[in-house]
């Protein structure tokens, strides 16, 4: 793509001063960028190699493999991950349904999902017992952890 005046094209913006901005850069934006300036006195060319550092997600805070809780108690399942681009956190519940994090906290029945990935089961009952799987995913890969909740 060639940009020859201050303009914005998709995620790319060329400023009046000649600066190029790439929003939401990904590993696919790596390469050599060419800046060419032409005046009545001549032309100057500069190349800029760009490396975008990215890595697959890794879960850094996870729930215990087995959790015991009494009915009516709250249970917190941590699932925080690092990754570039930022990993999306999804929980698979015992009934095989899925909850995905968003920009805001979300309430699904008695389950509260934080944007960072933690899942809180409020006032747990026998119906909440079972396997819970946390998956962190970005374009480079995924990581997952599973825990079993016993309600007794």
Automatic annotation (TrEMBL):
Residues 57-150 form the Ig-like domain. It comes from the Eukaryota. Transmembrane segments: none annotated. PROSITE patterns: IG_LIKE. Pfam families: Ig_3. The keyword Cytoplasm does not apply. InterPro entries: Ig-like_dom, Ig-like_dom_sf, Ig-like_fold, Ig_sub, Ig_sub2, Neural/epithelial_adhesion. Keywords: Disulfide bond, Immunoglobulin domain, Repeat, Signal. One of its GO terms (cellular component) is neuron projection. PANTHER family: CTX-RELATED TYPE I TRANSMEMBRANE PROTEIN, IG-LIKE DOMAIN-CONTAINING PROTEIN. This is MXRA5 protein. It comes from Tichodroma muraria. The lineage of its organism: Eukaryota, Metazoa, Chordata, Craniata, Vertebrata.
């Amino acid at each position: 793509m060639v940009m020859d005046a201050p303009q914005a094209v998709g995620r790319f913006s060329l400023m009046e001063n000649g600066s190029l901005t790439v929003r939401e850069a990904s590993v696919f934006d790596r390469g050599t960028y060419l800046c060419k300036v032409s005046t009545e006195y001549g032309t100057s060319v500069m190349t800029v190699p760009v490396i975008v550092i990215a890595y697959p997600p890794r879960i850094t805070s996870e729930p215990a493999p087995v959790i015991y809780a009494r009915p009516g108690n709250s249970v917190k399942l941590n699932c925080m991950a690092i990754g570039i681009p930022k990993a999306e956190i999804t929980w698979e519940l015992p009934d095989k349904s899925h909850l995905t994090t968003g920009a805001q906290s979300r309430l699904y029945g008695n389950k509260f999902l934080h944007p960072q990935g933690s899942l809180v089961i409020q006032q747990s009952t026998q119906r909440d017992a079972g396997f819970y799987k946390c998956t962190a995913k970005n374009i480079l890969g995924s990581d997952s952890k599973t825990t079993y909740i016993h309600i007794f």
